[in-house]
TrEMBL record, chains A, B:
Catalyzes two activities which are involved in the cyclic version of arginine biosynthesis: the synthesis of N-acetylglutamate from glutamate and acetyl-CoA as the acetyl donor, and of ornithine by transacetylation between N(2)-acetylornithine and glutamate. Pathway: Amino-acid biosynthesis; L-arginine biosynthesis; L-ornithine and N-acetyl-L-glutamate from L-glutamate and N(2)-acetyl-L-ornithine (cyclic): step 1/1; Amino-acid biosynthesis; L-arginine biosynthesis; N(2)-acetyl-L-ornithine from L-glutamate: step 1/4. This is Arginine biosynthesis bifunctional protein ArgJ. It catalyses: N(2)-acetyl-L-ornithine + L-glutamate = N-acetyl-L-glutamate + L-ornithine; L-glutamate + acetyl-CoA = N-acetyl-L-glutamate + CoA + H(+). It holds the Pfam family ArgJ. Heterotetramer of two alpha and two beta chains. Substrate binds at residues 162, 188, 199, 280, 403, 408. The lineage of its organism: Bacteria, Pseudomonadati, Pseudomonadota, Alphaproteobacteria, Rhodobacterales. The gene is argJ. Keywords: Acyltransferase, Amino-acid biosynthesis, Arginine biosynthesis, Autocatalytic cleavage, Cytoplasm, Multifunctional enzyme, Transferase. The active site is at 199 (nucleophile). It is an enzyme of class 2 (transferase). The keyword Membrane does not apply. It comes from Leisingera aquaemixtae. Belongs to the ArgJ family. CDD domains: OAT (cd02152).
Amino acid sequence: MAKSLPVSPLAPASFPDLPVIKGVRFASASAGVKYQGRTDVMLAVMDPGTSVAGVFTRSKTRSAPVLDCQAKLGGAADAGAAILVNSGNSNAFTGRHGQTSVAEITSAVAAAGGLPAERVFTASTGVIGEPLPHGRIVAKIGELNSALDETALEGAARAIMTTDTFAKGASATVGIEGKTVKIAGIAKGSGMIAPDMATMLVYIFTDAKVEQAALQAQLAEICDRTFNCITVDSDTSTSDSLMLCATGASGVDATGNAEFAAGLERVMLDLSHQVVRDGEGATKFVEIQVTGAATDADAKVHGLAIANSPLVKTAIAGEDPNWGRVVMAIGKSGAEADRDQLSISFGDVLVAEKGWVSPGYKEELGAAEMKKQEITIKVDLGLGSGQATVWTCDLTHQYISINADYRS
Amino acid sequence: MAKSLPVSPLAPASFPDLPVIKGVRFASASAGVKYQGRTDVMLAVMDPGTSVAGVFTRSKTRSAPVLDCQAKLGGAADAGAAILVNSGNSNAFTGRHGQTSVAEITSAVAAAGGLPAERVFTASTGVIGEPLPHGRIVAKIGELNSALDETALEGAARAIMTTDTFAKGASATVGIEGKTVKIAGIAKGSGMIAPDMATMLVYIFTDAKVEQAALQAQLAEICDRTFNCITVDSDTSTSDSLMLCATGASGVDATGNAEFAAGLERVMLDLSHQVVRDGEGATKFVEIQVTGAATDADAKVHGLAIANSPLVKTAIAGEDPNWGRVVMAIGKSGAEADRDQLSISFGDVLVAEKGWVSPGYKEELGAAEMKKQEITIKVDLGLGSGQATVWTCDLTHQYISINADYRS
């Protein structure tokens, strides 16, 4: 199915050149979990001393792999670690069989790599509620283990795709005390995207040395400004997982370092935007900047109400500068708003202020903004200093086609 | 625009025969607010002694007519009352001009009917953010006033339509102490439907005599089980208004009467279902029955999360028995759930239980249920005795077509 979809018009020109992250190696293989003629399993193996942090969906029906990862977080770093991910089946709502699948896979990876099973993390993405044919994955672990290569991150990015139309990667290089630390990550989307902790699947690696608890705290904080600020369709996956592995191979301690945090945020923001750019059926990338709210939390509530509104999203698809629907979304969001203090701009065009259309607004100016592929909607509540920025895409016929026909 | 849409496949065969409600008369006219070649204004005038109750959107950006109605509720019944409604323009987010329009219309209706302006209620539905050409409406008030007729409720139902593909009416007759009380109502939808107090516009009339405060309390309570349990697209209008007028012309006091409450609930449920059946692009009518939740409130949260999920709604459009998406929606709703206590049925087919697919489930059984035009999804949380039923429709290409092209 993924192969038959046209590449998103919002896709980057090509997969980026990612730096090698010392201390971690990758491999991918074709296990035939569901898809034929493509890779569908990836393995990452980290050296001893690697700190592992993670944030996961808060869904009450989260998958067996997510529950297993959450239980294992915070373990000792001295034994190294591994991550195995399959696409084509999410191993969610699969009862006791789901737990068995996780146990079979993690013990096989542990045995092949000489690791304790408590340091093997897994993720599964794809259809919900069908038993994972874990035997097909276990049968490929020897092949994966012998193919591990520090340059194989792009192949890993391709193996975890489902309805994604392009592979997603991003990187940053940060100077700390005259030395260099590298960060590289991959992600997949591209429907069921309204992350409550992270998006579907994201894996980020760095050769920085960061103490585990500090890494976890930093990851969660940045996630709130990046992956937790994107939405494609308001639907939250049962499998959302974002893991960050710091191998320490650079010998540079970045614990609490602000430059490192900024570099990590650039990578996470870049990947989160790529997920939106590959939102199912997307033809427009939309940034919603909310300012002047009573609190930052209120600003985010307003931003996500606009971003999730089917009527706003279809208006954008139709290139209609329908600011009345933005007013509607603000009104329904539940967060504080005063109709007569509100102003709304499309790009730099002020369309509405003081409870009505702006005196200088002309429909053709708004219409010109909406014809762009990258659209900015600015909302100022006029109430306080709370602000937030969220990102989304439009809602098109292609979204309906993908989701009325595809069993995901 | 409304005229070019095909009639919903879920529409009733014809508009129902509605009983005459003594004490109220109706008229409709073509004022050319926006639409051409159809009626777009309706007037209802109630005799002295009529109690008027209303529930309205809780949107923070609600329209000028809504604010005006809310301020006037609870006034003395001895002077009679009137309701004037226009379609084609919602008079929402129209600043000071919006208040002027309301004042011009209400004072003209008051002058023509010999009523105080404090007893004239208005509503406007259609595009947000454009000035209401109230002069066109005021010019028709004399014509409306002289055409008032107790049998003209169907015409009023037609005048308030926007993207509705059929006019909506319902009625009940209730025996109280050997006498008969009648209830008749009309409604319009059909996008921006996720009522927070009521749906877009609903007007219900009865010849029962009910004390005003009791009528208001009864209306709000029933609204929570009817109009507040439907959703088309999760978007809440700036104009939602539901008004109930009890003329008392029957001479029967129904204050606090259980039979009357049951009759009123039948009318409200019927009208709310008709709004869903005319949801933009709808091809399936979906009832979601949630039981076994920790509380009734939790059950409604789960029901609405399922009903509003784009992935559930597109699966229904595609006749795909994709129960995994129901699991996802329950997981994200925020209300209490235990994956392993959950059971899900499509119609009478048990598809999932105890955290996994039901042993006896066969895909073809689920698929047969999904081919029906009326679909029931039953969810039991297995946690307590909380329950709720909500209603929605599917999400189709036609919804995208209507909303990417139509400025509403």
